[in-house]
């Protein structure tokens, strides 16, 4: 199949037009007419991901986070973005990213389902005609302690740890989620009456201020929830592009922690 055959199938379910204005999605490197046989799915296009894709003979990489965000004035080996673009070109690998359009169309729903939430709706509606948007809001079947919810989040997403702001014994049932970096949605989670908010990249002051406003926070990390993109796309491609062999980057939290 050609690159354009695959991207057209993807964009029927995850249209580029659903991406937020500041984002950069779609075919970022490569020729849409190129024939492809093996895809490599990862959250980020890191040096390790690129090496793995080359080693396994992939001719297309699909990621959630775009390698290229802003304008580029030159492509050379002096910086990591240029080096990766050059390597993609040298090895004949096309590169496609689906970021906030994936968030709007898919991410919140599958994250909520993985946690077992009910009555799911978008946290921030960006597409009023169909109710799609960033994050999700839902309810647990019954109230649980914040500590129990934190354990549930850790286990549901296969994580080594989560960070929690709030009283561990507080009972929570209405849950807001924003996979990735969700500090900017704290006010919306409070406004919509959530008891707890699950997201990533929460700083000290944002966390303690949210608690003062009645919102408990579970910080599962930026990677912690969004890694579900890889499994979803692997399964979607197996169904919708069966002629394409697909390999996914192994799950690995991109950091390590020293404990006492």
From TrEMBL:
Keywords per UniProt: Metal-binding
A Pfam short name: DUF34_NIF3
Superkingdom, natural source: Bacteria
Coiled coil, from the record: none
Family that this chain belongs to: Belongs to the GTP cyclohydrolase I type 2/NIF3 family.
Protein name: GTP cyclohydrolase 1 type 2 homolog
Classification of source organism: Bacteria, Bacillati, Bacillota, Clostridia, Lachnospirales
